[in-house]
């Protein structure tokens, strides 16, 4: 006989990875747990039965979301039908707030405790969503310490569990370590990290390739594309071919490839934290569809966009957004940074603080302990 059921909804690549690590830790506490829901390959590898694949609805932007809306609605209905049939002991919702907060309300009506892992950025924009969270989420498990006061002010049960990347990203030899002071590399290795969603690849990869081409006319450059596990080579190869830029594609040992690069051109998101933890200097770049950018610019209420700058609480790395994320501007910023060893070392010093700011190791174990308490009926008492 199977054990207690757990609905798992992880809406994109990084969320799938976070959920998989938590489920693996949870199995050490509740070996017969029976997880099911919306996730992808990382969760399937730890035994989550997937009703649908999260890649089907992992997009950024209004126009992109409208295109996947019919499929998202169908998946939403399937998850609720399976929830009614299986009656899980709890639900683990990971990131993906547009989908998951609607689902949280339906689950709360059904009396299912909702544990939310990886907070929506309600502290940054669309703060009206906090009402839904306060009404429907039994406990919020957050990755960043600065999120705790915000939720407590709004009466939400919250626990800071720390960030799993502290355990995932080791200290690696870094490209600049082997470049003596007062000298420059014979060839600059430039890592391109255009994101983990297909919509991000379409929006940003051509720009990063063009920036690399522009940069190569000024200094010797070796470009390497750091491909997220969620992105197939078949998606990027035509874009690379059309650009005419010679690019090495790194799919394995991604972190080592980033650490071995002198500079990263990095999409805003979790990849900025990975890059920061290996201390590779970076420029954060991001572009959205025009209508989405117009709305976001009016609603966002934080001084920085990149997680690195938010965690460090200062502008440690440059942010080139929307119109500023043009090939010529990115290349000019890269050339300026690479031309100043003092600026490189200053940025590396800032990035060295990141690990301690993210908290102690063991984030997935702490999150699993809180989830287990709810599954076993001890959540409120704990």
Q: How big is the Rg?
A: 21 Å
> Using DSSP, what is the number of strands?
13
Spans of at least 5 consecutive residues whose pLDDT stays below 50 are: 59-63
Strand content: 15-25%
- The CATH class of the largest domain is Alpha Beta
Instruction: Provide mean pLDDT, rounded.
Output: 88
Beginning-to-end CA distance, first to last residue: 28 Å
Instruction: Give the spatial strand order of the biggest sheet.
Output: 3-2-1-4-5-6-7
Please give the largest β-sheet: 7 strands, parallel
Keywords:
Rossmann fold, 13 strands, alpha/beta, 2 domains
Verbal overview:
- 46% of the residues lie in helices and 16% in strands.
- The protein folds into two domains: 174 residues, Rossmann fold (3-Layer(aba) Sandwich); 190 residues, Rossmann fold, CATH 3.40.50.
- It has 17 helices and 13 strands.
- The protein is globular and about 60 Å long.
- The protein is of the alpha/beta class.
- A seven-stranded parallel sheet has the order 3-2-1-4-5-6-7, with helices on both faces. It has a six-stranded parallel sheet with strand order 10-9-8-11-12-13, sandwiched between helices.
